Each structure stands twice: as C-alpha cells, then as structure tokens.
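Incident log entry.

Two folding requests arrived from the same account within the same minute. Monitoring flagged them as a possible duplicate submission, but the sequences differ. Recording both here for audit purposes.

Request one:
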Amino acid sequence: MPSRRSISTPILLAIGMIALLIVLTVGWVLMSVFSAMEDTSHSGWYWVLLSIGTTFIVLLLVGVVLYLILSIKAINLTRRQSNFIDSVTHELKSPIASMKLYLQTLDRRRVDEQVQADFHRAMLEDIERLDRLINQMLDAGRLDAERSREEIEEIDLAGLLGDCAAAVAMNYRAPSDTVRLDMEKCVVRANRMDLDVVFRNLIDNAVKYAGDPPRVEVVLLSNNNGKALVRITDNGPGIPKHLRRKIFGRFVRLGVELEREKPGTGLGLYIARNLLRRLGGSIRVRDPEEGPGTVFEVLLPGMINKHV
C-alpha cells in the first residue's frame, strides 16, 4: 500500500545512514591507527580505507538529502491532511447543525405548510450535500480497485456530459443555461461510472469557482488521433501557473482552509486525474483565450466515431 511504502522508505533510509556512520567511524579509527604506526607495509590498506570512507561519505550525504526531501513531503502531506480534516469537519457539521435546527423548530412549535415545505427542501439539500461528500470520499478510496474488462462499454460522451451538467446545475439550484454545451456527437469505450465521476467533479468545480454571474462552457471535439477532447471553461479568477500541477494533489486546496467560503475536500481534481490516468487519458490546465477564468482540457482515448 502507498501509506506503508511512505513509512518504510524513510525508516530504511535512516537505518542505512546509521550503518554508514558506524562504518565510517570504525574506518576513521583504523586509519588513525595505521597513520600512527607509520609502517609502509600498511600504506595500501590506508588508501583502500580512504577510498571506501570517501564513498561512504558521499552516500551518507545523498541519504541526508533524500531524507530531507521525504521529510518535506511528509510535512506537506500532514498540512494537506489537516486542511482535509478541517474541510470535512466543516462539511459534516454545517448540514447536521442546519437539519438539527429545522427539526427542533418543527418539534417545538407549529408552523404553516409553506414553512414546513421550505424546511423539508432545505433539509433535503443538506442531505444531498452529505451524500456528495460521502460519495467523493468513497470514490477516493476506490481508486486502487481493479476494473474488469466487462465494465468497459461504448458511451455516448455528449449525452453523458449533458447529464453531468444538468445534475450539477440542479445541485447548485442554478439556471439550466449556467452550463453551456457545444458538442460533437462521439462514442468512446470506457467505464461509465469513472467518466461520470470525472466530469461531475470538473463541472462542479467550474460552477463552484465561476464568477458572478457564473458562466461555464463545456465543449466536446473529436480528434484526428482517435481521441475525444473535452474543454471545460469557467469565468472565475483563474489559477496561477505555478500552482496548476499542485491542485491535482490529494487533499490540496489553495489558501487557508478555515478562511475559505467554498465547500470542498480537496479530493475532486485528485480523483479526476487518477481516474483519467486509469482510462489512458490526460488532463491539463490553461488560460482561456479571452478574459479571466480557467480551462480544463481532458483528452480521452478509445473514440469510435463522432456519429451516434
């Protein structure tokens, strides 16, 4: 498992450096003894030990550098996990507190039918929010699961993207034209569940961070190399170039978690990138041709044709 490897590697590296340090100490003592003896018969051993000691010093320095790199990665991972815990705690606590308040109000006093309907709708939204959070965490946990060949099927990509856009717009109670679709019909061979998770995450991310009013465009194009190209563009503030690779890391969210206004766990883009890799696809981030915003470009293999 990745977690076990991340723990065992620095431990083995530390043991190796300690062993090298012990050997160097013993070697240094032996060289000192040979030098004190001033016996020319030992001059060959002296240079052999000197060469071995120099090699061990170089290896020790390399080990120190590697250990420092692993330590920095561990610190960054701990920070991301702390942000993840903060965000998940907030995502769990807010809807639970909201539903508790609504239920206490309904239990302690009578309200008219319209208010009851409003309370029920708000509680349903809170439940949907919890359901999305749990599903996202389950998706992250299933990334290492094997996919059988039977789960690969022919998928109408334009139809799937339309369904994902409609679902995201409904979740945000946004007008149906918030996500504009411009598509060529094409069929790809892939796992439907994986593609649904990928594009729901990407479109959800685009709507969440879009400007006011939000404008999101999803464009589907065919490619001469038998691939489908999907561009998802928003009119949000954009992502700095030096952070564009970082955002696909696990638990990564830009900024300080407790100062954020947007909900999330830092898993959406991580899940999307890893699912696309498993499908043989790729994802990249770039600037739009005009104005502020972000463009996510997804390249999918396995396109059969562009006519359904």
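Request two (distinct sequence, not a duplicate):
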Amino acid sequence: MFQLRQCLSLTALLLCSTGLWAQSFSNLDFEAANPGVGPGPVPGLLSWAAAAPGWSHGGIGGSGGNGDIDFVYQDLPHVGISPWYALLDREAGSSVLQGRYSLSFASGHASSLDPGSAWVPAYLSQTALIPLDTRSVQWLGTGPLQLLVNGQALTGVAASPNAWAADLSAYAGQIAELRFQNMALSPQMPVTLDGIAFSTAAVVPEPASVWLLLGGLAGLMGIQRRRRAGL
C-alpha cells in the first residue's frame, strides 16, 4: 500500500511538472460572455466576470475601484483619454468579427483628462497550458494588435484582412501567457479581438512573401548561371 501511494504521488508530481494537469485556455471566442450577470455600478458597464470570463487585462483603474478599466463598457461611450475595454454585441447592433461577441479595447493615458500623464497600454492576457500538438495560434483582429507569449513578441502572418496566425510550436505543451496588446501610441485607437484558436497546422506565409522568396531564389539562380558562363 505504501509503495502504491508513493507511485501515485510520483505520478501526480510528474503530471503537474509536465503541465498535463494544468488549466486549459478558455473563452477564446468571447462567447462565454453573460451580460445579464454581474452588472457594473451604472447601466452600460459590466463586470469582467460577466463580460470576459477567463481573461485578465492591463491598465490603471480609478479611485474606489470604479476606474475605466475596472469594468467593461456595453452600449456606453467612453469619455476621456484613458484605457478602456468594451464588449461588442452583434444583437445590439455592434460590428463583431464572428459569433455574437467580440472584445474591443484601447490604450490611453493614466489620467483620463491629462495628456501629459503616463502612457498605459491596454491588453488581454490568459495563462494556461498550450496543447501539446500545437503548431500555430490563429486569431481575428483589427487595428495595431500584437501577440506576446511570455513577454516575447511573435510575428503575425495575415491570412486575410482580419485573420492572423503565428508560429507557436516552440511553446507546445508548456504553460504560457498569451497577451494581445494594443500597440497604438495615441488614445482612442481601439483594436478588436476574437476567434483565438490553437492549430496543428503550420503558419503559411502571405502570398506576397512567397512571391518575394521565389523572386529572390530566381535572382540567385540567375547570378550563379552568369558566374558559370563567365568561367
């Protein structure tokens, strides 16, 4: 019995260390939003648990816990130049990227009224286990949106005007932070994010990049032929 308990303990330790029991990413399409639960202090504001369960966010809140980023806007305009987050709802007439919900957010200044105050980037982040067979991550996004994994910026490849993908194979099977950050350096320039998904497919370069590569190879072959002809 003692040996069995030891074996189970070692197995549990191994599973935890390899991340097999780690939490999985959730609500990657924002469809888990539930605006009817967890309203904010005034109509048009939602709690984060209601608007974007599973996600953390960046920014500076106001005094008393009622700052612009402590809640998520819904059908309420943002006033000022501080960071903000908004849940877009197709059924309310908002322009979304897919499904019913998308999330939009903008970076801004620490003070809603002082353009000389510190610049505060807005971002969404989630830390969990990246599936073992992952080769890429795909997402829908608009605006100056940057993906960072454990703080390392990844290059997004455009598959269509609003569809992006990045090579995530180096992080497969690891617990990692995915952070989608608004890289705008002026206020009121929002990004919209939706449809994040892990994929077993490799990232396919943009057609323009493929033609550029082929053109470069053709140029090298031409140089080699001319050198041979000159010998």
